[in-house]
Amino acid sequence: MATGGQQDPEAGRLVGGRYQLVARLGQGGMGTVWRAHDQVVEREVAVKEPRVPAQLSEPERQTMYQRMRREVRTAARIDHPSVVTVHDVVVEGEQPWIVMELVQGSSLAGQLAEGTLDEREVARIGLAVLGALDAAHERGVLHRDVKPDNVLLGRYDRVVLTDFGIAQVEGEQGLTETGAFIGSPEYIAPERVLGQRPGPESDLWSLGVVLYAAIEGVSPFRRNNSPATLQAVLSAEPQRPARAPGALGMLIMQLLRKKPSERPAAAEVRRVLQEVHRPTQPAVTGGPVGGENRFENTVLTGARKVRYSRKVQIGIVAVLLAGLIPAVVLETGLMDKIRGDELPSGWEKRDESKRVGASFAVPSDYQRSVGENRVTFDDPGGVFKIYVSREGGIDDSALEDANSRKEFYEDGAQVDIGDDTMEEAEPRVNESTHQGADGAEIVTTYLPPDDYDDSTEELPRLRQEMTVLSEDNVRYRVYVDMPKADEHAKTGEEMFQDVVDSLRINEL
């Protein structure tokens, strides 16, 4: 447990004949945590003292004690460096006291009280928590209370997930009273709010909220009271994290999907977090600049990548040219990276100013077709489609316009009276921005019509879409259409991000 408590009148008390209480570290719904000294092996430990409200009936008290004993059994069966180690259980005054390792450091909640974290640090913490959850899930254990307070940041970059007090163990009878609700509302998955059976996906939802809070500073579902918070969990569509515009932000939004079946699996979560956490290769003096193949206007500052506006980029270039940053060497390719001109392998920049008033990058072998104020690029294999359009005279706001399109999709996406082009469409809308202009993202799963492709079964598809509205009421629309199957969706979502990152709208 985390250190940092103050002296207490009960400091010095001996528990179980060997654990001397030193200072109170914190207090939660089920107990008080103390820093203590183990007089037998001469080490510092954390001791959880049961906190029993006076109004509890005897059966309720026994339920609480059973829950604490369950925490011991649950944590003991999980072998992972990011799960707190339980040393002992002693009975004091007929109550079970839990003795566990003392994690020297602070909680993630305490860290966030001082400020948000950068993407790489968030990914590092997320990987450790994911590892702990993976180990728990393999043992049939659901944590059910993943939140910043239960993530401890120790010395030597150690991250520990603690407090398995309300964990659910497969095959064991539940301890919650009928109608009772346990957990922290803003971190509870929608299916749990609805009383449905939770699974590992529920813990991954909570991890997604933790990642969101770590990068933005607050849970996207926090409201003034618990009922409003729970309603937000069920119905609110959070905005995409502004401080995580790339792969991390996309992963967080995927983890926060309302339907458990639509959330990414743990393996995919791990892959993305590893990519985000992987250090950016520094420039080598006198040689070509390496680095990520992404469309980001970035410069390297230590281990972080920082996004800059065009004016700031010019300022950076001026400083570099003036020789005020001697550690950075100007070389062929560096200026292109600052401008964001580097393309993924096999891609090319397309200037479609005449057709849609914008330029963007697409795979070089995609087949181009055009219409009035639109351009489409089709995968030669028929798997993916990239679409960009421009349309004026939009009277609604960006969000209102996106919600109108959502209704259009839900109604079957009929262009004229006739057959639907989308069946069983399930669109989700989130606010976004691009080049400083208001916009929205629309993610839609749907079934194509029966005659979409006679050579294949009718399989679900996914459309990832962004709309941007200029001050002159001109709407720019970009989407990538793809199969919903995991292997294709992963490629398609990365493709969408690359297209959006490269998109430069002339009038913005």
From TrEMBL:
It comes from the Bacteria. InterPro entries: Kinase-like_dom_sf, Prot_kinase_dom, Protein_kinase_ATP_BS, Ser/Thr_kinase_AS. Its EC number is 2.7.11.1. Pfam families: Pkinase (PF00069). SMART domains: S_TKc (SM00220). One of its GO terms (molecular function) is protein serine/threonine kinase activity. Residues 19-284 form the Protein kinase domain. It comes from Streptomyces oceani. This is non-specific serine/threonine protein kinase. Keywords: ATP-binding, Kinase, Nucleotide-binding, Serine/threonine-protein kinase, Transferase.
